[in-house]
Design a protein that fits this description.
By secondary structure, the chain is α/β, with parallel strands linked by helices. The chain is about 30% helix and about 20% strand. It has nine helices and nine strands. Strand 3, helix 3 and strand 4 form a beta-alpha-beta unit. About 35% of the residues are buried.
Amino acid sequence: MPTYGKKYRKSVEGVDLSTLLTVEEAVSKSIAASFAKFDETVDVALGLGVDPKYSDQMVRGAVSLPHGLGKTIRVAVFCKGDKQAEAKAAGADIVGAEDLVDMIKSGNMNFDAAVATPDVMALVGQVGRQLGPRGLMPNAKTGTVTFDVTKAVEELKAGKVDFKVDKAGVLHAPLGKVSFGPEKIQDNLKAVLDAVMRLKPSSAKGQYMTKMAVSTTMGPGFRVDTTQVRKFIEG
């Protein structure tokens, strides 16, 4: 059994964390339960009825959050020639090709997201082992392997979120900061849920969204009645 601190225990006093809530209730309660001295991130965890070991059941995508993430996103762009000037003009923090690969090989990965033009993907593959585990590997499905580096960089800077179901069939996504308040977090969550629902694999059988919980970085998870999700998205 995990040992929780005094502030955590106080935040859940009188709260039944097994109760299934509406999406709106879960968001409000998670924000109200925030106790950290810093502006915590609000996250959603979704349990999906898929088996990721089959490629046709892998749920992976990206979504631009209407209110962003509330933090500065450092973007690296792998490209050559004129695309380097384009990437810099779009606001990229780090731009390069072989030099950027060498930087990563030396252990320097001071960025939060990466974009690559298709013609340098073989080069990027040299550092796939470093980028992949950190969720930094450019991918065409999330729009980060593209010749339109301006669009890709601007979207990431504005709060575009990549998501991918893990081996256990669980998907995690950040929704913004506690300071956003319930309404903005709900707007961002609606965008995430809508994107995930649209990516439902045709081969997935039975209930698609099986579990859902909303929490802050340090706080407890508030469970959501998944039968209410469709109503929330369409509302």
